[in-house]
Design goal:
By secondary structure, the chain is α+β, with helices and mostly antiparallel strands. The chain folds into 2 domains: 115 residues, no CATH class; 88 residues, no CATH class. Helix content is 37%, strand content 17%. A 3-stranded antiparallel β-sheet has the order 9-10-11, with helices on one face. Strands 1-2 form a two-stranded antiparallel sheet. Strand 7 and strand 8 form a beta hairpin. The termini are far apart.
Length: 255
């Protein structure tokens, strides 16, 4: 099934149809799963080789890597010990007498040529780093996370993308159930992706403000907020958080 999928990837350009013969088409539904399996093969092989030596025989930085290594497609999160290089253990250089690692330093093409360093990394390090749509912080030995919206750092003609409408226009023909359901789904997302209630309140108030300013009926929006039932109890007690959220909305949104 995989070979059939890869051998039958077509796209159009102008009046011609082309068949992709190299690589996995980005828009294919199975592309994320195939990428995950491909990278997992190398990662699992490295972990098995390392653990065969015995856990107590592994250096502290490798133990930390194994315990904290997280990847979703091409986004990797890991903790490192002291001044250990960020790329240590990531590349397998045994063929050239170098250290053992996960990913190959070259891949052989069908025509015999080689791609050197085919899996390159763009590394962000520090006490706070973005990972997927979260900002992860390590302070005093504790992990914390909050929503990370890269649109806040992107501008078009001087306008911050996060300030633009990212929900349906109020006059669209979608039903009110769909349009105002965005409030509920947004609250669910903020409750699950933030570790602190204050971060939830900030993001929720910002969303409500944008929707009301975009023409959404304030009473309907606020009704969705008050009736929200997907609260994450790890953030605190909802009946104490709700008044703070409503107060924040009143302060940011003209009555």
């Amino acid at each position: 099934m995989i070979f059939w999928l890869l051998d039958n990837a077509f796209s159009t350009f102008g009046n011609k149809i082309y068949r992709q013969t190299t690589g996995i088409p980005t828009g294919t539904n199975a592309a994320p799963e195939l990428t995950q399996l491909y990278l997992l093969y190398y990662e699992l092989s490295f972990f098995c080789r390392s653990l065969s030596k015995g856990w107590s025989n592994l250096p502290a930085d490798l133990q930390t890597l194994i315990l904290t290594y997280l990847r979703y497609i091409d986004d990797i999160f890991r903790l490192r010990v002291g001044s250990s290089p960020s790329e240590k253990y990531l590349y397998d250089q045994r063929s050239s007498g170098g250290p053992d690692g996960m990913y190959p330093v070259l891949l052989q093409n069908d025509d015999g040529t080689a791609n050197h360093m085919p899996l390159r990394l763009t590394i962000e390090s520090g006490e706070t780093v973005p990972f997927l749509d979260t900002s992860v912080s390590l302070k005093r030995g504790l992990l914390s996370w909050r929503l990370y919206n890269k649109r806040e750092h992107m501008f078009v003609d001087g306008v911050r993308l996060s300030d633009l409408r990212n929900f349906p226009h109020i006059e669209t023909k979608l039903s009110d159930t769909v349009k105002y359901g965005i409030v509920t789904s947004g609250l669910y997302r903020f409750a699950m992706i933030n570790k602190m209630a204050l971060d939830f309140i900030r993001e929720a108030a910002r969303m409500v403000k944008k929707m009301i300013q975009a023409g959404y009926d304030k009473a309907k929006v606020m009704d969705k907020v008050v009736r929200f039932q997907g609260w994450n109890k790890n953030l605190g007690v909802w009946h104490k958080v709700l008044p703070k959220l409503l107060r924040q909305i009143r302060e940011e949104t003209p009555l």
